[in-house]
Amino acid sequence: MGLRVASLFMLWLALSYANEIRKGRTRNHGHYVCSTWGNNHFKTFDGDFYQFPGICEYNFVSDCQESYKEFSVHIQRALNSNNHPEIQYILITIKDFTVYLRPKLAVVDGQIVKTPYYSSGVLIESNDIYTKVFAKLGLVLIWNHEDALMVELDSKFNNHTCGLCGDYNGVPIYNEFINGDISYNSITYGNLQKISKPNAKCEDPDETQALPSCNGHRDECERLLTSSAFVDCRLRLNVETYIQACMQDKCACNGNEDSFCLCSTISEYSRQCSHVGGRPGEWRTQNFCRTVYDDITEKGCIPVSQCHCKLHGKVYSPGENITNECEECTCDSGRWTCKDLPCPGTCSVEGGSHITTFDGKKYTFHGDCYYVLAKGTVNDSHALLAELTPCGSTDRQTCLKTVVLLADHKKNVVVFRSDGSVLLNEMTVNVPHVSGLCGNFNGMEGDDFKTNLGLIEATGSAFANTWKAQSTCTDQLEKLEDPCSLSIESANYAEHWCSLLKNSAGPFARCHAIIDPSEYYKFQAECVSGCVCPEGLFDDGKGGCVEEKDCPCIHNNQWYSPGQKITVDCNTCTCQKGVWSCTEDLCYGTCMIYGSGHYITFDGKFYDFDGSCEYVATQDFCGDKNSSGSFSIITENVPCGTTGVTCSKAIKMFLGKTELKLENKDYKEIQRDVGDDVHYWNRTVGLYLVIEASNGVMLIWDKKTTVFIKLTPDYKGKVCGLCGNFDDKSNNDFTTRNGLQETDALKFGNSWKQSSMCPDVTQEIKPCDVKPHRKSWAEKECSIIRSEVFKICHSKVDPIPFYEACVHDACSCDSGGDCECFCSAVAAYAQECTKAQACVFWRTPDICPIFCDYYNPRNECDWHYEPCGSNVTTCRMINNVITNFSVPYLEAPCFGLICDWTEWFDVSKPHEGGGDYETYDEIRKHGNKICEAPEKIECRAKEKPDMSLEELGQKVECNVTYGLICKNEEQDATMWQLCYNYEIRVNCCEWSEISCGTTSTPSPTPTASSTTISTTVRITTTGRQSTTITTTLIPTPTITSEFTPSVTTPVTSTSPECECIWTDWIDVSYPDSSDRNSGDYETFENIQKNDPSWDCVKVENISCRAEKFPDIPIADLGQKVECNVNTGLTCNNSDQLIGECECIWTDWIDVSYPDSSDRNSGDYETFENIQKNDPSWDCVKVENISCRAEKFPDIPIADLGQKHYYYYEHHNCPTFVHHEHSVLSTCIDNCSYANAVGVSHQHHRHHYVAPQHRHQHNPGDNDDCS
Question: Signal peptide span per the entry (predicted)?
């Protein structure tokens, strides 16, 4: 009876859980978890709760697929000294990898290992509280070293597991306790999972002995599990099952009040609540189950408010303060809460070329002039100048020769010379507001390269050149070469001495905690009036004197004329009187993570961090107790070679209650029960997967090792993590998780690891030192970044950090994928160049190729590599949340040109506005959309759509540049008082990605009733020329945009392109010489009608010829023929003019032969015989004729002595001479040459590719133009 009652009780628990599922609860992490705890309690993946007191080794969970078992987890329990069950050991097998765990001990493949330990996709973490195992195949195991064990499995193992955790099929009871007609109690089911070992000495629990039932202690257990601390857990878990387990524990303890009896099940309830997204409150107290564990002082569990803080190895008590030069921090609940303090700024010039700004930005500049180090921004109250001059054998050796202080509005001058002498009196100067080589001292390192013109320069040299104190000095160029590469001896000498700076046991070791030594280890013009120009004129920086309004502006070493505009980030800047005037829109921030641990923060700080764990890239939950945060992005780093460096291989993106996991070139979604509803969209743009969320977060992933994270300005100063805090101050980006600012990238990075048990990174890895044989190859390959290929970008984006990162990555990826590491590093620089509007065609068939041809159908060319992609602006509005992102120009492999005609537009009426104005501006004013630069235009009268503009006779401008204009006042008043009502349509082309398998159809061919005007679109590219197609109606205009991105191409090779393919000669139309309205129409429309399978949307070229005269250029035939790359060939009989065509001699014709045996025979080369012999010969009117004897072509026919029949009589033996003749045809006034065309079609990135034609003519007669 007891056994049956226990079975029924167990069945009731399972059905209760099943009913909970049927109510519609979303599947969450709780449904991927199996656990055991306390007094032999178990919860299966499918939600069954049961007890099993076995003390043998059992299969807790394993992969039970028949073909291949990926993992197994075995456990064994025993009774401790208090007679409570505890887990003695856990045995984990993952493929061929074995892990044996005991409390505070980890053994891998028979060898004791120190934790944290990582190998073969398995990470083991351990401390005094728990051991955690992560397996990349989709398993997480957590053990508290005592009674509680939890295993979480990826959903890919659904319905593929067995053991004490069940089959993970989502259905409670069945296949575990009910199998067909057989039902098991929990003891029987548990015994079935026993691992048989020959020497094992343990007894199976008695299956006939029911577990004791317990109805007491319900009030106490219910009070504890439904207290206010668990209010967030009630709707997430079935609390009744835990109440029943708690009651079982209390009964089993027989009145013993030790912590095991109550705390184990309540702890499990708290753990499971947290795991499904709940937030249990403070349920532990000093007198009940204690509180949190103090892992700093190791004094047991304490309230959170009593947690200590740690800094540089020293422990600080709650409430204790520390103060440094610029901030004051207080220890609060284990975190540092800091506030900024006013602090002085220092600018330095060291070694004659190494400059550190007031805000901490470091750069190198080799000058040869006087430069402004700092000056007052208000009234020029003071200025500090420095004279930098070459002082060695190369221009890389410069010295600080003189320092000049101009004070009191230049009334007092103090000069400091390198020999120590001082001219005039030494003065003390305060510089509250400054600008110059020392920056602007505003606390924001990111804008220290801002010039007095108002823009931020990209490189140190471009910035320093704007602060020349003498405009006659020559601008200095950026030195891209590594000086140590010029001499091995010099490199060894430099390494020996400079390495002392970073030596942890060296003389500078005590400084490392305060100042990062790596930067020191690496050390390797305005309009002015009345000075050089007459009063009232200004030096323009280029050797001339101009008025103030004509002063040019300079940016990134390029000069711009007054009125010119450029785009800087999301703002537009206009050159006005030598100064940039910019809009002040707030721009989104971008963080970039790429390659083997390279980071560029939202505020532009560039650093490296190689850690092999999961790290917070960015999140908006940054310690504010009143903020729960709306997103978090975690990057998982794994080794990408044997040198120890890591790459970001997987990303987790948490958006409200949605978790997205991106790995293996794809992503999957997991819905949790906690969090806000944050909507998101995903799409593929070029090579990248783009995730855009309604809360203003965008993630762009190249499906490999590169990640871009973009945030709207609303997040400024509200985020934290490895991407910095997005407050425009890059010098505080190294703010750690506990709130303090660090100078060391390693300590900063370590603070943002997800698990405290993950190993810290203790030293910077130099892969080229570890693998020196790869260094020369890496430097050679990566030199493309500093080469002529990227020259156009060097002044816009500093190539040095990208080159160094490239060499680092190329050295590190030594276990396969080395080319991918190199290509990703170069692509990162190319992407930044694209953002700076410097598009570089750097990929070639030999360098990181992208093979678009793989996607092209046979003999077609639809797919093209697009290095700079196209800008995609998105605007999403859901639940009143708006994001307006501009997706950057992303590198895209396969782009095609899509062209289409618009609808007919008629927005103007002649009787309303003095004429008919169907211009693009008017069309847009009426709410219609039309492209900025149409390719073609068609115009027609709305009431007479079949008549051409010429036939209508009015004065009308139909221009592809602006549209149609017809003015009433310009018409002949005797014929028309008003313009006709006209309408237009245009053809717009747009480069965009083409889906695989997409087929295109030709654009509609313009009819005779409309006028088509084409434009010249000039785009600089590799190996291509712009093509201009014109008509005789209106001169072809050239369209130029206000700003054209600069384009450069590799010097050594060209971008991969598709080949042109000529068609065969096409002849589908024949002129009717008897019909004056007929003609020869080898148009694309007719070709398509004749052969529906013919599909050539973009034609590159056309060749036309006459069928009968294939070797004679069509222009020499004398007919009026249009051979148009957009439409094909058109020849109208009515267009041909009688009597005005050139005469054309035929070849020599010979169709008859004299019979010498027949006196009545002869040679008859008559037109009739020629026509009979060749029916296609059609020449009615002959202008001239020439005859000759075949055997005597050089003797005039009159000298041969024959007449009429041209035969000889000699010795009474009649002999006939064989004749031939040539005909000179007169004006050919129909199109009876039977034209033919051949086209070559190709799709290409920059061209609207139109047909190539070949055209053939048959000679026809004179009266009907042939």
Answer: 1-18
DSSP secondary structure letter of residue 681: E
Amino acid found at 1081: Y
Distance (Å) of CA 297 to CA 41, 287, 313, 852: 33, 21, 12, 61
pLDDT tens digits for range 936-975: 999 999 988 988 898 888 899 999 989 999 999 998 887 8
pLDDT bucket at 487, cuts 50 / 70 / 90: low
Q: What are the DSSP calls for 930-994, one per residue?
A: --SS-SEEEEEESS-TTS-HHHH----EEETTTEEEEEGGGS-TTT-SS---EEEEEEEEEEEE-
The answer, yes or no, to whether residue 792 has pLDDT greater than 50, is: yes
Asked if residue 475 has pLDDT above 90, the reply is no
pLDDT tens for each residue of 1050-1087 = 333 333 344 567 888 899 888 887 788 889 999 888 88
Over range 547-552, report the average pLDDT. 85
State the sign of the Cα–Cα–Cα–Cα dihedral 1226, 1230, 1234, 1240.
positive
The tally of CA atoms less than 13 A away on the side-chain side of residue 654 is 22
Alpha carbon distance 1090, 1093 (integer Å) = 9
Distance CA 980, CA 164 (A): 88
| Residue in 1262, 1258, 1230, 1259 with CA at minimum distance from that of residue 1075 | 1230
In angstroms, the first-to-last Cα distance of the chain is: 112
What is the arithmetic mean of pLDDT over 571-579?
A: 88
Give the start-end residues of each E strand in 1050-1174: 1061-1062, 1079-1083, 1099-1105, 1122-1124, 1128-1132, 1144-1145
Angle at 1173 between CA 1172 and CA 1174, to 5 degrees: 95
Helix axis angle for 239-253 and 218-225, nearest 10°, is 130
Name the pairing type of β-strands 369-376 and 434-435. antiparallel
- For 1190-1249, where are the E strands, in sequence order? 1207-1210, 1213-1216, 1219-1225, 1236-1241
Matching residue, tokens 């975690």: 634
For 1265, residues 6+ apart whose C-beta sits below 8 A from its C-beta are: 1119, 1133, 1136, 1138, 1141, 1227, 1228, 1229, 1230, 1231, 1232
Rounded Cα distance between 470 and 473, Å, is 6
Bridge partners (DSSP) listed for residue 86 = 78
- Mean pLDDT for the chain? 75
Beta strands 688-693; 680-685: pairing state: antiparallel
Q: Is 157 helix (H, G, I), strand (E, B) or coil?
A: helix
3-state secondary structure of 1024: coil
| Digit-coded pLDDT (tens) for 346-388 | 888 887 888 888 877 888 888 888 888 888 777 677 888 888 8
Amino acid at 362: K
Q: In this structure, what are the phi and psi dihedrals at residue 1183, rounded to the nearest 5 degrees?
A: -80, -35
The dihedral through the CA atoms of 735, 740, 746, 751 has a sign that is negative
Three-state secondary-structure class, residue 220? helix
The two tokens of residue 530 are 């009345």
Quick one: which of 715, 576, 539 has its CA closest to 633? Answer: 715
Sign of the CA dihedral running 1188, 1190, 1195, 1198: negative
Helix, coil or strand: residue 475: coil
Which residues lie across from 94 on neighbouring strands?
Answer: 71, 97
Q: Per DSSP, which regions of 28-174 are E strands?
A: 33-37, 41-43, 49-51, 57-63, 71-79, 85-94, 97-102, 105-108, 111-112, 117-119, 122-126, 131-135, 139-143, 149-153, 161-162
Strand segments, DSSP code E, in 313-424 are 314-316, 321-323, 327-332, 335-340, 348-350, 354-356, 362-364, 369-376, 383-390, 398-407, 412-417, 422-423
| Paired tokens of 752 | 């943002």
pLDDT exceeds cutoff 70 at 1244:
no
Exposure string over 569-606, b if 16+ CB within 10 A, otherwise e: eeeebbbeebbbebeeeeebbbbbbbbbbbbbbbbbbb
pLDDT at 92: 94
Query: Directed axis angle between helix 2-22 and helix 239-253, to 10°?
Result: 150
Retrieve residue 880's tokens: 């009143």
